[in-house]
Write a structure and sequence with these properties.
about 160 residues, mainly alpha, Recoverin, domain 1, two-stranded antiparallel sheet, 4 strands, ATP hydrolysis activity, EF-hand-dom_pair
């Protein structure tokens, strides 16, 4: 799957227009300093730390310019699209721990649904229900970390 496949044609058109509006010399690149402005142009309101983190996540932290594909990779990360949505085990532990507010090492099915809908936009309730059956741990409407991890990896 190409990076462009992660977006619909309207998103790609919007991103291309925004990118091109900051590519003043039509060289196919923008300054990394312009990235925040391009993101604002499409309705995002990124903070400096987030922009820096996104640039570093795609491996462009040492570059002074970004191509359109670099920009798409950044937007895919920001929007949780495509192959860029797979969290590390440490990140999943952090998400699970944050959600497990009472410290019983379980989260509710409703909390899992919220996480899935936030982080895995293309997973339907029906698909999630099938995964819950597949990885059922018998915890009465709750999910332990192992089940959470398996479901997150299956939906990545």
């Amino acid at each position: 799957m190409s990076l462009e496949d992660a977006f619909d044609k309207y998103e790609l058109e919007e991103f291309r227009d925004a990118f091109n509006s900051f590519d003043k010399d039509s060289s196919g690149v923008i300054s990394t300093l312009d990235l925040k402005s391009v993101m604002r142009h499409i309705g995002e309101n990124p903070v400096d730390a987030l922009v820096d983190d996104l640039v570093n996540q795609i491996g462009a932290g040492d570059k002074e310019t970004l191509t359109f594909l670099d920009f798409l990779a950044i937007m895919a990360k920001k929007m949780g699209k495509g192959e860029t949505t797979t969290e590390t085990e440490d990140e999943l532990i952090e998400i699970f721990s944050f959600t497990d507010s009472n410290g019983d090492c379980l989260i509710s099915i409703d909390e899992l649904r919220e996480i899935i809908h936030e982080r895995r936009k293309k997973v339907s309730d029906e698909e999630l229900n099938e995964l819950l059956k597949k990885f059922d741990s018998g915890k009465d409407d709750h999910v332990d970390f192992e089940m959470f991890y398996n479901i997150m990896m299956e939906t990545a």
